[in-house]
Fold this sequence. Notes:
This protein has 13 helices and 18 strands. The chain is α+β, with helices and mostly antiparallel strands. It has 2 domains: 3-145, S-adenosylmethionine decarboxylase (4-Layer Sandwich), CATH 3.60.90; 200-425, Vaccinia Virus protein VP39 (Rossmann fold), CATH 3.40.50. The longest helix has 16 residues, at 200-215. The N and C termini lie far apart (68 Å).
Amino acid sequence: MNSLGKHILVEFNGCDPEILNDVFKIESIMKNAAEKSEATIINTTFHHFSPIGVSGVVVIQESHLAIHTWPEYRYAALDIFTCGDLVEPWESFDYLKLCLKANNYSAIELLRGSLKLLERFETDQLNFREITKQRISVQEIKRNVWFTDRDENIALSIRYTGKIYFEKKSHIQNVRILESEAFGKMLTINNTFMCTERDEANYHEMIAHPAIFTHGRISNALIIGGGDGGTARELLRHNNMEEVTLVEIDKNVIDASREHLPTLSSSFNDPRLKILVADGIKYIEEQKAKSLDMIIVDSSDPVGQAEGLFTKDFYMNTYNTLKENGVLVIQGESPYFNTNVFIDTYKILSEIFGADNVKTILFHIPSYPSGTWSFHIAHKDKFDPEATQSSIIKEFCCSHQLKYYNEEIHYSAFCLPTFVKDMLSSDS
């Protein structure tokens, strides 16, 4: 042995972009690569950066393997450093090149700690080894895999335990149900948070009940999106709700929730619920005018398939489908995180429904970036959020043991901070 360690700096080009953007596959590949070189794994830490990119490291007893990916360029940069002569880093390299499906590469090997230039000092190595054995159990690998949802200014990370309950990919998207450390099971679509067991009630109670109680007489409703079932569950708590139609574009979302999120999908067997796997945009175009009391757009962020759910044409079609006193509820994004979408959606709805007939409500949800989210509620007729008697709301919330929504929340949710009022009233 002529050096203390080998250090390989690698660039892989032409890799499979889907693999490069999959934090779970990247972690598994990197762990297996370490094992291929006969290294001893201590722990792993990996992050997925929404919408694209993975960064992570496998710490081994002999040093580390690190990676950062740029899926949009089909490029990955790696750093493989091993100490001693019992581990062969090139075995890791060969495995990584194969698994990442790299078309070409560049690699440089550096010898670290040339023994010709170093002077050895005598130490009590046996004592050091005994102390290390007492402090470290190399058989137990600590995993740190993080989902990160971010824009250029804000990020939210949730730690994942390593357990995947459900994973299916369609031509539309990749659906997973994972186990998180702090929020229980969480549903993700294309590596973006949709909902978690711990705080989903915040979202689903607020998307349904404030609009229903301000309307007062809803008997039929349409949900576009919402394949996890949480919104349907809340609508069907109301005894006067005769029919709810749920239109979800991806059957995998429905299947995942039915199998692994029973608290959300608990209404799937309710005879008042009709579930369709279809494109919600096309479905609305085909509906009769003035046929529905309520439409709820329970969508993901305006990316990919969901972009069409944030357009003026789509909102015009929902307006035409609603009865004269009908109500539309839109997932409005965050005034902090997706400010432009938040403002633009409100203004488009104000043009269509009239400024006096559109209200915005805010609510708290820890698993969404910034922790503050919104719904825009648009009525075809004028409405007063304070008209509903608090005793009616209180009785409903108590009888159904709601977790977030109550009579105080109902009235306060319509009270916006000054900075949000200024956003929505601005002409820019």
